[in-house]
Amino acid sequence: MKIIILGAGRVGQSVADSLVSERNDITVIDTDAARLRDLESRFDLRGVVGSGIEPTVLAEAGAHDTDLLIACAAQDETNLVCCKIAQLMFNIPTRIARVRSTGFKAEERLVGPEGFAVDRIICPEESLTRYIGKLIDYPEAMQVREFAGGRACLVSVRARQGAPMVSHTIAELRESNPEVAMRLVAIYRRFPDEPDRFVACSGETRIEPGDEVFVLAAQENIAHVLSTLHRRDARAAPPVRRIMIAGGGHVGLRLAHQLGLQAGRFHVKIIEEDPQRCVELASQLPPDVMVLQGDTTDEDLLGDEGVEELDLFLALTDDDEDNIMSSLLAKRMGATRVLALINRRSYADLMHGTEIDIALSPAQAMLGELLAYVRQGDVQAVHSLRRGVAEALEIVVRGDRKSSRVVGRKVSELPLPRDVHIGLIVRGLPDAQPSGAVDANDASAAAPQPEVIIPRSSTVLESNDHVVFFLPHKRLVREVEKLFRVSATFF
Question: Are 3 and 67 in contact (CB under 8 A)?
Fold first, then answer.
């Protein structure tokens, strides 16, 4: 696929890194020539120096035969105008814009074909806020990714010594929980002086303390799954109440506002070093959110504000080093759980397995929204995992026995690549809209409810099934997509 990326900032670089690795033809536009040269030296792509709202620059980037435009420059206005020019002058089929402003999503006329002609608006800050919200709902989890409109989830959890199913085999886990719709799809195990190693899951695989375990399960079973792998008493973790946010930037403001609106549920404090920004935060946030002016790495400040009583400390500044240091300090001082926002991949790799419970990359939180547009076939959801190495993929089965290689076939008959296994199937979702747009609470009471199926070797795939895979290596994606592609006779 031929793709133009406007903007070589943090988001643009992360998008380019992910898409180049999938053998796409990438061109990046930016006004900073030095930044483009650095990208060209690290990735197999082409850089074009100039403004993305100038038709001549877009033409030089190859817009006449481009399949996808991703406009992720720093300014909303630049991205919106670029999409409109791409539609009017170059007829680029798919146009995605990064937009921070919250007003555009609700105004279809502004972003539709007669407006700025944006097919999809993405906002990394909104994706991060939504992602962190899931981690607050499931405090034992290291990751929570949704499929089939939230009816199924992929979670990762650190196996803990003494938890009910740790030191047992996967077969024993299934036998002790036969009524629970879940499947362990991958284990990453720590070894001295080397990266975590992928362990394929079979019935004989034993879960060891310290393993990072990936589980696919129905949404209603997530809390139970997490407790059996992480807590000694097999009860769900106590809810997160006391939260401190370090950094009052775009992400910190969004999250504090979201949490502050849930009156009585959370006790939220936000620390910001800039006095003027503190005034702005205090004027925009609900009155229950306490705004503190100070250094997020100030040990005295953290001690005075009761860091040892925190359920969750979130370091969300724009500075990776500050986020790392403040998280390590908060953890040492007694915070139950800490999360650090880290942009640099090298830093995130270094922090993996340290006292920082979660090292979160902003780009990884929203890459899936972009990857779904690059995938072939009817891909509904994509989630990039393990710092871009692995992937979880939701594909809708289309066609019939004549036009599809999978419809009417048993799972055991599918020629899937080694290490790729079907994690679960969601059957009975409405066919009229994408799974990501379906709300489990919107279905009519009279309509049959979708069913989450843990497939066995004898399970037969049906048309319109939503199939979720875990792929330990991204290079396997194309083989899976090819298998589920319908023939030309399917309309």
Answer: yes
